[in-house]
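Hey,
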Amino acid sequence: MVNLFGLYGNGVALSERTLDYLWGRQNITLNNIANVDTPGYKSRYMTFEDTLAKSIRAAQTAKGEQAVAQAISSNRPSIHITNAESTRLDGNNVDMDQEQVDLVKTAYEYQYMVQSINNDLNRLRASVKGF
């Protein structure tokens, strides 16, 4: 993607990173669904929002926009294993209802972020046409 730092600050970089994380979250959810019948499989989930927000807040108070850009690019998501006890005899704890809700939620979040980036780029195109 073209670096639009000078035009949009860190907004596009944050949106791009969020899209990457949401793509990863969707893959983890799909992996859980694929392993619904695997004996002993424990479902996984990914978090990134809290650590990303903390990194950005720390960078903002300390060093400014370049530090925020570094915080965005260096942040990594956390993958966790669900330790909830299984009600199944085979030890698998994948809850298909919850996985399907997570899948739809992530798809909507992804779609929203893509639309946000498209809106930013459309505003840029409109402003350039004026020249």
